[in-house]
Amino acid sequence: MNSINRRRFLSLSAGATGSVLLTQCSWASTSMSLPQKTNGAEVFTTNSNGLLDVALEARPSLIQLGQQQGNLLTYNGLIPGPRLEAKAGDSVRIRFTNKLSQASNLHYHGLHIPPTGKADNAFLAVPSGETETYEFTLPKNHPAGTFFYHPHMHEMVAEQVFAGLGGIFIVRGALDEIPEILAAKEEFLFLKDFALDANGKIPVPNHMDVMRGREGSILTVNGQVNPTFSLASGGLLRFRMINASTSRFYRLSLEDHPFYLIATDGGAIAEPVELKEILLSPGERAEVLVRGDRNPKQYRLLNLPYDRGGFAMMGGMNNGGMMMGNRGTVDSTTQVIAKIAYKDELAKPLPLPQKLIPVEVLPQPIATRRIEMSMSMGMGMQMAFLFNGKPFDMNRVDAVVKLGTTEDWEIANVDTDGMEHSFHLHTNPFQVIDRNGKPDPYQAWEDTLRVRAKETVRIRIPFRDFVGKTVYHCHVLDHEDLGMMGLVEMQA
Ligand code: C2O
Ligand code: CU
Ligand code: CU
Q1: Which long-range contacts (CB under 8 A, 24 or more apart) does 21-24 make?
Q2: Theoretical Cys-Cys bridge with 144: which of 85, 175, 188, 255, CB 3.0 to 4.6 Å?
Q3: Phi then psi for 306, rounded to 5 degrees?
Q4: Which ligand has the minimum distance to the alpha carbon of residue 284?
């Protein structure tokens, strides 16, 4: 039985968890959704005709990041861009205007929508100064979850994302209706790192930054440095976490509080799982609940040190962190990225949900493919990142699959350099079956996953609903730009 089909969907207003303030909207036309402000974020929701109708403009903006002003790239002048919220079956129309000095486009990360035409087409290029209208409909059985949008112009993705482009895309549905989750206070953690020089400009990455994947030492949550979230004694917080950074891996932990995982990239898991830490590779998302059952004071949300490997090839420069300052590589310090402060008290403590939503069991695969991730460094330090030994070629189809079938893909990190990668597939979410032969504990819906050095991860992908060409790539976006991307064509 397909659990998704049994879901009922409820329309929630943007202000479900906070006070709603209608702001003036300069782009408002008769049909266009009005932006609302919730906790300082701009939110667009579906109108009464089931249409999410918004205008997004990519443009340079001066943005305050902690103590510094940065020359960043934004959607509508905001970091993150406006939050878009829809539900299964809704239609989405996004009028995208490119006010950057180079071509750009939009990708809807994790959404199960067509990869072709004016939908989630990574090959569509919107030249500087031009406008394009994206249009798609979310399938009626689209799972509820935390998704995001960002630019996807090959060879410029890392640069544009690092400069600030990205925003949250929420699909509301069955998970949001579970009473215990409905009662929780919803917050978003849009995680994005920035680097700025003394003039507030983004430094040009050096060779090493690009090889590792560029990182910055300014860590932001929803565009803010070290924001505070409030939690009532006896209350529940629901954090929707999005790793929207170009290359940074986050290893998150909240002082004295476990996380209760309720959803992975593609939506709900079967029941909450208690975790001390959450590791998110670039592009990954997770939803967790936090219980307000400790001493009512302030706690720090920490990003713990994490070594994502690499440098074996260069003679094991494990002190790379020192060598490169805090612009990349081994992060040997714990960083505070936000605070959770207890405020108020509930008369009756809120319980955790016992059950969430059963995860569909996928049919057996009709084929198995192996995809190897590696890098090569030629003469003159030319780098290339490869799948099965080849860099991306948009005129080459790397895998042809039949619509309506399920395949197992073995994603193997054979990089002798020892660097971790973040494998991501567009259009069709998948389930992780095992890692190095060990069954995955969740077997939940994912679209992005960390692949450690020498690791082989077996994923199961149902190719459903949409024909056409789509891509898979490393979500360490510098690696994608340097060739670690492949093309899969779904055929009827
Ligand atoms: Cu979020 Cu093709 O990427
Ligand atoms: Cu994507
Ligand atoms: Cu990579």
Answers
A1: none
A2: 175
A3: -145, 130
A4: 1
The pTM for the full model equals 0.91
Tokens of 267: 């939506």
Dist CA 446 CA 264 (whole Å): 6
Domain assignment present for 318: yes
Ligand 1 pocket at CB < 6 A: 107, 109, 150, 152, 283, 424, 426, 473, 475
Position 379 scores a pLDDT of 65
In ligand 1, the atom with minimum distance to the C-alpha of 109 is: 1
pLDDT in tens, 183-207: 999 999 999 999 999 999 999 999 8
What range defines the domain where residue 483 resides? 367-491
In this structure, the residue with its CA closest to atom 1 of ligand 1 is 109
11-62 pLDDT, tens digit per residue, is: 223 333 333 333 333 343 445 677 887 666 899 999 999 999 999 999 999 9
Q: Count of domains in the chain?
A: 3
Which tokens hold the place of 261? 């995982």
The 3-class SS string of 401-435 reads EECCCEEEEEEEECCCCCCCEEEEECCCCEEEEEE
Measured distance CA(329)–CA(319) in Å, rounded? 9
